[in-house]
Write a structure and sequence with these properties.
The chain is mainly alpha-helical. It has one domain: MFS general substrate transporter like domains (Growth Hormone, Chain: A). The chain has helices at residues 18-28, 30-36, 42-49, 53-81, 83-102, 107-135, 138-152, 154-170, 173-193, 208-219, 222-243, 245-252, 261-281, 287-311, 316-319, 321-343, 349-375, 379-408. Helix 1 (18-28) packs antiparallel against helix 6 and helix 17 runs antiparallel to helix 18 (379-408).
Length: 413
């Protein structure tokens, strides 16, 4: 059972619970639902509106850029006004935007409502992470973060499968009607069950000068930049396959619109497995050991992906498993990196989570709008993209470790 509190009171959690993890994960699922569920419908939307692939791809990149931009503000808003009102307001706006997508009459209105979805979708993700750090510490925090990641992983796996079924049975608009029904359920759930975990005494004033000083303090911290870019590059390593999913599955591997599960189930199974392993290792192994194991999985996935993409004929039986292995590694790395990042700013966790999310999803928007379309023409190109992002992430981890050792010795460059 989730912890509860009266208005304005802080909450103390004795131990992580699966029920509360499901609640927090449900908040974070808005983002992947809005990205993944409509991917199978790309061809049908383009046909109805009479637009090309680039114009349609902008429905994804516009969403991601709006998502990333508002992540700069979600944390500051929740640090100033509390966790609960920001989540409930974000869900309500997301519901209105989803209704607009369902009834859009042209691609321009779809762009507009996708942007509105992006503006509101990040509230749950940012606030959920901040709530974990409000309530839990040490191994308990890692366990809860891993449980949320585990449950949250169901969304990207189920979303394209549900989207494909709805598309083939009821048409592409039914995807957004389904999404609207889901958001309303989560909204009611939060009104009834979500506690307020940030007491008024711990809130920050929403003053422009104070906000600018806080943003500057976070962004100028070298360790924050290293960890946030590391997480963003790991995300991009598999996100290129999500952004390019219609071309990767239908164009290159000859899978029908019913078959998006061929990519998303293994991918999300890998994320859930990595999260489960991270939770198991919490308290038994250091975060650094967990991250090293994660990079070992990622390196294995990259090498296998290069091998099958360059040397074997296209087939889902061997082109998808390397992505699964990489996702195990990224999910092993993510909880520990996120906790390290949040612990850099104990009194500004909401803002730190916001800025990390901005970096990650701005990178995702860039990948969706430019890199993925460039690489989607061939399997070797996509494999090289995955390898490049993973290698860059690993280099940043090495730089971060060296800097951490130097700081422990009392030397700051």
């Amino acid at each position: 059972m989730a912890p509860s509190a009266g208005p304005g009171a802080g909450v103390t959690a004795k131990r992580p619970t699966w029920g509360f993890a499901v609640l927090l994960a449900s908040l974070s699922m808005m983002g992947p639902f809005a990205v993944d569920m409509y991917l199978p419908a790309f061809h049908d939307i383009a046909s109805e509106f009479g637009i090309g692939a680039i114009a349609l791809q902008q429905t994804l990149s516009i969403y991601l850029f709006a998502f990333a931009f508002m992540l700069l503000w979600h944390g500051a808003l929740t640090d100033a006004w509390g966790r609960r009102p920001i989540v409930i307001g974000g869900l309500a706006i997301f519901g209105l935007a989803t209704l607009g997508c369902a009834i859009a009459g042209n691609v321009e209105s779809l762009w507009l409502f996708r942007a509105l979805q992006g503006i509101s979708a990040g509230t749950g993700m940012v606030v959920g992470r901040a709530i974990i750090r409000d309530l839990y510490h040490g191994a308990d925090a890692q366990r809860m973060m891993s449980r949320v990641t585990l449950v949250f992983g169901l969304a990207p796996a189920l979303a394209p499968i549900i989207g494909g079924v709805l598309l083939n049975l009821l048409g592409w608009r039914s995807i957004f009607w389904f999404m609207l029904a889901w958001v309303l359920i989560v909204l009611v759930y939060c009104v009834v069950r979500l506690p307020e975990t940030l007491p008024p005494a711990q809130r920050h004033v929403m003053h422009p000068r104070v906000l600018w000083r806080n943003y500057k303090n976070v962004l100028l911290r070298t360790e924050f930049l290293l960890l946030s870019m590391l997480a963003a590059l790991n995300f991009c390593a598999f996100f290129i396959y999500i952004a390019a999913a219609p071309a990767f599955l239908v164009g290159l591997l000859n899978v029908s619109t019913w078959g998006f599960a061929w990519l998303f189930i293994p991918m999300i199974t890998g994320i859930m497995l990595g999260a489960a392993l991270s939770g198991r290792m919490a308290g038994k192994h250091s975060p650094q050991q967990t991250i090293r194991l994660g990079y070992a999985f990622m390196a294995t996935g990259v090498v296998l992906n290069l091998f099958v993409s360059f040397l074997l004929p296209p087939d889902v039986r061997w082109n998808v498993p390397p992505i699964f292995i990489l996702c195990v590694g990224t999910s092993l790395v993510a909880p520990s990196v996120m906790l390290m990042l949040l612990d850099l700013f104990p009194t500004m966790r909401g803002m730190a989570a916001s800025l990390q999310g901005f970096v990650q999803f701005a990178a995702g928007g860039f990948v969706a709008g430019s890199i993925a379309p460039l690489l989607a023409h061939s399997l070797p190109a996509l494999a090289l993209g995955m390898a490049g992002f993973t290698m860059a992430s690993f280099v940043l981890w090495l730089v971060y470790q060296r800097r951490a050792r130097d700081l422990l010795k009392g030397w700051t460059p």
